[in-house]
Amino acid sequence: MKSLYFSATLRDAEAPVWRRFCVPMDYDFAKFHQVLQILFGYSGREEFEFVFDDPKLRVTSDVDLYESYRFLKSDEGKHYLADKEKEGYNVDMSVEVAWAEDLPLDPLTLKHRQFRYIYDFSDDWTYDIELVDLLEDGPALPELREGLGNAPFEACGGFSGYYELMEALTTPEHPDNAAIRSWVDEMGYHFYDAEEVNQKLRDFAESLKK
Are 53 and 130 in contact, with CB atoms under 8 Å apart? Predict the structure, then answer.
């Protein structure tokens, strides 16, 4: 079975955080997002998008963004834009917007191999994605091949909040250690474990068959 072999690297992290992994070639961007969530230990609570610079494209789960784009592409929206231009406003419509469940990975990622994955628009976790190879006889299920580092937790206030949280979590004598540890457990966060990740990827693939 054909599969796509990707790398994903967290941008701006102090220590390297990356994964190399395979996904079936027939996945769409919504399934690809779910694979990335498992790879980096996220919960899917927040919105996401994939950003391509060439072509200018945003593949999104943001309902407001997608509906606004659809409106502006409609006849009514075009009249609205024309009125705005007369008023001196300029709306950039050079960026296309696609709904993640509507867009397959192939053929877009085969032609445009480098793009970004942004998760949680408040904390703005940005991953640089690259298609490394097309595997003619690849795994039938999504599969982690190798990786390094723990991804930041969700809802922690970006990198500054994450590093403060980690200092408290890894310092037993820190006054907030017990509270932070309890919060981490309650939120269901896990540190990177390749075997656990691959089991969750297998479970995810099986869930798609139901």
Answer: no
Q: In what order do the strands lie in the sheet with 96-99?
A: 96-99, 57-60, 48-52, 114-119, 125-135, 3-10, 18-24, 143-148
Mean local confidence (pLDDT), 149-154: 90
Percentage of the chain surpassing pLDDT 90? 74
Fill in the amino acid letter for 179. Answer: A
At position 44, the amino acid (one-letter code) is: G
pLDDT tens digits for 34-61?
Answer: 999 999 999 888 899 999 998 899 999 9
CA distance 43 to 60: 17
Q: Name the residue with tokens 């701006």.
A: 12
In whole angstroms, give the CA distance from residue 9 to residue 174. 31
Token pair for residue 70? 């659809």
**DSSP label at residue 151:** P
Half-sphere exposure of 55 (CA within 13 A, CB side): 13
